Amino acid sequence: MVSETIEISPEDIFGLIALSGDAKASYHQAMLLMQEGKKEEAEAAVVAGDATLKEAHAIQTKFVTLEAQGKSATVGVLMVHAQDHLMNTILVKEMLGYMMNMQNEINELKGMDQQ
After folding, report:
1. Please, what is the Cα angle at 22 between 18 and 26, to 5 degrees?
2. Is 84 annotated as a binding residue?
3. Which InterPro entries does its entry note (predicted)?
4. Buried b / exposed e across 47-83, counting CB within 10 Å, b at 16+?
5. What residue spans define the domains of the chain?
6. 3-state per-residue secondary structure call for the chain
7. How far is it, in rounded angstroms, from Cα 86 to Cα 20?
8. How far apart are CA 34 and CA 105, in angstroms?
9. Which of 17, 73, 103, 105 could form a disulfide bond with 34, CB atoms 3.0-4.6 angstroms apart?
10. Does position 1 have pLDDT exceeding 70, yes or no?
11. Are 75 and 83 in contact (CB under 8 A)?
12. Is 28 a catalytic residue?
């Protein structure tokens, strides 16, 4: 049962949006690099994206933990928007692994070497 209402700060909400967007941009960059045959650079972009996504996920975990402790917040459209960004970034990350594997096979078939 929820016993206390808290306010989620705009900094946390905008942090979730910005970090999610930054992580997604890194994942997109990784795919572009992979298409150019730059496998090592692509993998580095994935690592960078994962680190940024971890920061975004930490913000979400804070919200979930507070609610599990019996505290809740009024959820507005901006918070829903932030959660949408995070969810979409997680989906991009999940699909990226499959896509990079396929692109690696394509690159090998084309005879593209690491550039």
Report:
1. 170
2. yes
3. PTS_IIA_lac/cel, PTS_IIA_lac/cel_sf
4. ebbeebbeebbebbeebeeeeeeeeebeeeeebeebb
5. 4-107
6. CCCEEECCCHHHHHHHHHHHHHHHHHHHHHHHHHHCCCHHHHHHHHHHHHHHHHHHHHHHHHHHHHHHCCEEECCCHHHHHHHHHHHHHHHHHHHHHHHHHHHHHHHHHHCCCCC
7. 5
8. 11
9. 103
10. no
11. no
12. no
Residues contacting 99, CB < 8 A, separation 6+:
31, 34
User: Are the C-beta atoms of 71 and 5 separated by less than 8 Å?
Assistant: yes
Contact at 8 Å (CB) between 42 and 99? Answer: no
Q: Which tens digit of pLDDT belongs to each residue from 40-86?
A: 999 999 999 999 999 999 999 998 898 888 888 888 899 999 999 99
Tokens found for residue 57: 């996920």
Question: What pLDDT, on the 0 to 100 scale, is given for residue 56?
Answer: 97
Tell me the angle at which helices 10-35 and 77-110 cross, rounded to the nearest 10 degrees: 10
pTM recorded for the entire structure = 0.87
Q: Indicate if the pLDDT at residue 2 is higher than 60.
A: no
Q: For domain 4-107, say whether CATH 2.60.40.3500 is its number.
A: no
